[in-house]
Amino acid sequence: MTTHQSHPEVLKRLKRAHGHLAKTIEMVEAESPCVSVAQQLQAVVGALVNAKKVFIQDHIDHCLESSLGKIDAQTKSSLDEFKEITRYL
Hints:
Blueprint (H helix, E strand, L loop, with lengths): L6 H23 L4 H35 L4 H14 L3
Helix pairs in contact: 1-2
């Protein structure tokens, strides 16, 4: 795997998710209030979703686009549209 400029950002988000998950486990073991546990679980999910988005966008921007080489205007337009729609993953 090639390291891209965004990988440090992805790692930061994954470590944040790891911390939230560890806290969630502690909260469940301590029988914390359900609402508090649910809020912490939401933080875990949010951190993972954000890491996934950054990682996928980076792959599209660097790996997919560079593998296509020189492209015509129609292909460029299609690629730009593809990049835009993946932001909703």
